[in-house]
Fold this sequence. Notes:
By secondary structure, the chain is mainly beta. The chain folds into 2 domains: 147 residues, no CATH class; 84 residues, Immunoglobulin-like (Sandwich). Helices cover 6% and strands 41% of the residues. A hairpin with a 6-residue loop joins β4 and β5. The radius of gyration is 35 Å and the shape is rod-shaped. The N and C termini lie far apart (84 Å).
Amino acid sequence: MAATYKGILTNNGKALIASATLNNKINYSHIAVGDGNGSVPTPLETRTALVNEKARIALNVVEINPNNTNQIVCEAIIPTNMGGFYIRELGLYAGSTMVVNASYPPTYKPLADEGGAREIALKFVINVQNADVIALYLDDSLIYATREWVKSNYLGKNENAVSASKLKYPRKIAGVDFDGSTDIALPMLGIDQTWKDVIGLRFLDVFYVNPSSKPIQVIISYSYAWGGMVTFKKNGVNDGYIPFNSDSSGQLSFIVPNQTSYKVSSGDGMEVLSWGELS
Length: 279
């Protein structure tokens, strides 16, 4: 029994497939739908366009059939916001060329405001001699995804990724590589650091390096200082300074980035009362 609804390669489609090479690939791009002007048209090899096209939808799948490498599978989805017409004919396009002309069981595609909004998935399977001459790429800006595909591939807002062991693409967080497979220690001030009294180990006008992977904080209490400066160096190059002034006593507090040296200098008479580092 002959198929009631079928698709055939058009003459233009046959010529396109015959002339395709590895350097001149076929780029299947759209599926067109039409209403046939009220009846289901018989597919014709000579047809170059649908009898009465109503819409053209970008493909969201172009792939080689994993069970038959001489078959190309093309799929498209008519979204809910497109409709108000019957579908009785289909055309698979590669750019401006209709490659396949097909008939389709009469189906009404409603609009949302008609109270019956729905998606319709369309699928073509094309037999070709050499699947290597098909361009398997898509314009992502035009692709729609079905609700079922989204449910299968994306988490809901209240769901957890319980089955994932690592990120597909590692990210950097505060300069540290992170792929989700293990905990990481972020180079943040105060995390796993404690205050240390270093007054017996630090002297004015001497550079001291922060050799760790994290910034450290320095607090110095002093008296009888008539002005001074904190100087920073990184890789032996001056990296900034902080001046300070006082008519009798005061307190300095500053952050030293990792792998950076600092030096406290003062005018005559400065007496250091305490020197602490959070490191």
